[in-house]
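It is worth pausing here to work through a concrete case rather than discussing structure prediction in the abstract. The textbook approach is simple: state the sequence, then state the predicted structure, then interpret. We follow exactly that order.
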Amino acid sequence: MSSTGDALIGRTLDGRYRVLSRIAEGGMATVYLAVDERLEREVALKVMRPHLVHDETFVSRFRREARSAAALSHPNVVAVYDQGEDDGQVFLAMELVPGVTLRDVLNEEGSLSPRAALDLVEPVLMALAEAHHKGLIHRDVKPENVIINDNGTVKVADFGLARAVSSQTMTSSSGVLLGTVAYLSPEQVERGIADARSDVYATGLVLFEMLTGTKAFTGETPIHVAYQHVHGGVPAPSSRVEGLPPALDDLVAVATARDPDERPADAAELLQLVRRTRASLTPAVLDARPAGVAAAAAVSTPTATAALPVRGRTALATGGSARTTAIALEPRPLEGVVLDDGRRRRSWWPAALVAVLLAAATGWFFLLGPGATTTVPSVLDRPQAQAVAALRDAHLDPTVAQAFSETVTAGTVVQVDPGVGASVRRGSEVIVTVSKGPERYAVPDLAGSSTAEARRQLALTNLTLGKVTQAYSDTVPDGQVVSSTPKAGTQLKRGAAVALVVSRGRQPIKVPDFTGKKASEAQQALAKLGLTVDATQQENSDTVAKGDVISQSPRDGTLFKGDKVTLVVSKGPVMVDVPDVIGKQVDDARRILEAAGFKVVVEKALGGIFGTVRFQDPDRGQAPKGSTVTVTIV
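Step two, the predicted structure:
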């Protein structure tokens, strides 16, 4: 755009923003390319038009844009960096987004393929969902405010009309209604109020325009267009472009319902419907180019940001220039026209009677009889009983089908065919698809199955075999399933993986050798390994201390948990009574002790000349057989 004679070119505002060139003009402001000399980056500088600077209403709206957009931090929202005023120049410093507007795309391409339209509307809804989540509504959603960056990113701009949801009125202090008339919701026109559902309505109209290449409502004057929002109904996109699927008609019909209560509650809810609709369409349908515009006579009027009267007041509508036009909300009643050429009326009552009867019969056939038409009502997301009743009230024949849905509550309508808003003959069949709730399958009891059998059972229940690990099991034979994760009975989505633990059989236990070691320690160690210990067998031993293990069976090798190890425990040597040989002659004493199994050692006292035993050790009790008895002779 030429910037010849523009006094702002070359000027630095607020000592920071150096204006380079003019980018675009609008009814409220002019947008310039500028350089933020403090941060050394290019920005878009939106400067309010001079004649509006002294209008506090517009200044307040201009500043509100900065506050509204600054409250949003989202990749699909054009960022506002700063606001300020310099010598009467009120401005906003915004993110510079190189690219084109959706309006530019529609002007060049006309109608888009369903895939392209849905690809563009999804990021718009993500931006609006973020705004709605933070309590803000845009109130001026239109193709001019959707920018497609050179890198393909879609951004929503111009939150100048955004207001907190709690403040529903759209009237300014002068009582004018703000917004772009082609995208105003009925409640904005009728009552001057807006909430998140008004943005949903406008987005539905933008989607309609992308699918058809034409605006839903056109007219010679803004009030004519506004009147159609209130008293008309948004046509089905397929009535303008042949071949569009009913699912897209349903989507547009739900988003643009005249009653706000019949629309999605906010952009996030509409985004879910958009994604669900996309998932229901085949790639061929999504990529199909429009076959032709059926309503070629529908001509788009230039977009105008209109100030419409509220509750019958007259106000100004501002277009692309400073020219203003006065409009009134209420349509004028039609004036009657009287024709009188003075000729005598001829009495052709028989023919007239036939004509009346024929007209009555024709009227009955097309209004009440078999030829009458009706419109499929909006029954999406309604309980089955309510939907069936509504269709019957509309003189239609509902047939109920069922389908799984991850997002729609069980028992609630997911889809209707023909779609919502379709014009059909009375008595026509309408297939109502009701949600069965999320598609879930119970994990079967796989314990004791082989891996191959487990895989087969999972496939039969629409589940898949996941990671398989092995573990020892004392109860489950080798090669059979010990357990599953998640466990049997858990409800899973179609295709979910189930992990298995498969038995390696009993765990082998290496047997340690405890021969010659304390029997008590051996019992504790073997029991800790999971083995059963039999230590009841005991034997005398001259070489193994009492309480120690004489022998073990098995002595080495491997066993399994619960297997038995037998220990033979030493009772020590055999004990015998020690004979009393005191007073006996040494030879007799030796003979007696050796006969009892003892060894004899003779010691002499006083020379032992008499050979009589005076002392013995041990002298009484018992002693181990084979041990030594010492005798002392005198």
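Step three, interpretation. The CA atoms of residues 342 and 348 lie 18 Å apart. The longest helix spans residues 114-133.
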